[in-house]
Amino acid sequence: MSVAKNLEELRAKVSSYPCTLVAVSKTKPVEMLEEAYKAGVRDFGENKVQELVDKYEQLPKDIQWHMIGHLQRNKVKYITPFVHMIHSVDSARLLKEIEKQARKEERVVDCLLQMHIAEEESKYGLSEEELFEILNGEMLAKARYVRIKGLMGMATFTENEQQIRKEFKSLKRIFEKVKADQQLPQNVEIKELSMGMSGDYQIALEEGSTMLRIGTTIFGERNYN
Q: Cα–Cα distances in Å, from 202 out to 143, 187, 209, 213, 216?
């Protein structure tokens, strides 16, 4: 299996859409990431803090690292010195911790607010009501070291394309609603809509995704051992 060839095929399929490709490298060895890097990838996504830190230390420093997995507040301090974007902000308390740790590093951390759009209980994320509570809340208005760049969501893991499309449509609707809000604080710049993975990226692109999180299509099946 060639990572470079997989990337070439994937890029050909998504080339007509203006989107950022985040190569999801969780559980993959550094050698495979190096192959993707040589093929021009600069955005990599990890879902575990320890693995993210380990790979950051071993790989070129012009890589933009995306934290895409559920993030515990006690782990935030390990990634704030270098992380490019945190996709999985699913509570005001987590956002507050990112602000606190980013202040210590004196760098602004870009974040996406994770929405709960799937019909599965296991997925993390905010309701629409919780989203606007954060966006209009005092904490965000006073924050100087976090910047909200958009929304992220994961569709239900299902073969039912109509359901996936419905969930992505609902996320796009919320995205447009937030974008149209004139009352948002200065540190909210709604530009990115992170939705779509290996199994559903085509639907996500059709529904307005600006950022794909692709693992299996690039690197092959995940290693769980």
A: 36, 31, 9, 12, 14
